[in-house]
Amino acid sequence: MNELTKNAQSPLAKRFRGFMPVVVDVETAGFNAKTDALLEIACIPILMNDDGKLVQGEALNAHIEPFVGANLEPSALEFTGIKVDSPLRKAIAQDEKVAIRKIFKALKELKKQHGCRQCILVGHNAHFDLAFLNAVIARTNSKNHSPFHAFSVLDTASLSALAYGQTVLAKTCLLAGIEFDNSHAHSALYDTQKTAELFCKIFNELPMLTTKSD
User: Fold this and answer.
1) Would you call 127 a catalytic residue per the annotation?
2) Cα–Cα distance between 204 and 198 in angstroms, integer?
3) Which of 193, 212, 204, 209 is closest to 158 using CA atoms?
4) C-alpha span between 10 and 48 (Å, rounded)
5) Quick one: which of 12, 13, 129, 190 has the most CB atoms within 10 Å?
6) Could you tell me the pTM of the whole model?
7) Contact 44, 23 (CB under 8 A)
């Protein structure tokens, strides 16, 4: 069976026009993707079960060493609570090129398994996450390694406005009946897990966004 035939028969690929949604959250040392450090990244692929429901795949995440010359904005670090010089963090932080290519390799293998041609970034205010992702791709010369579409996204802030009349992640989760612990917020992994849970709930449960059977 060739790749095109596989894609045509994949329910996940069919649902998102050949894309595999991947929820991404980044924690950074500021708002400028070109100058400010990427400090954490987490990715959760969205898959489809045998009942046609969207489910979370296995999380991929990393703590990232600031790139050489990166700006570390004190107010941003205070907001996230990330202590860049913490010995515990230094022990697990990875070079951004090593970390991002490892994540990309895993996602490429997964999208191929599920018959998808490309990943599409899902995020809460997704273009912020995409800007930092594209910046690290450029810094590490990883364009050919990236499985992501360069500019298309699915934004849960917009979906939340449609579904719940709210755009703040924590407030939307509560409206959706999803537990949200603010003490864990601004951890890339936690925020990604909650965004993925919200994304799946919206697509699985809201009639306006579910596909009708033939």
Assistant:
1) no
2) 10
3) 209
4) 10
5) 129
6) 0.92
7) yes
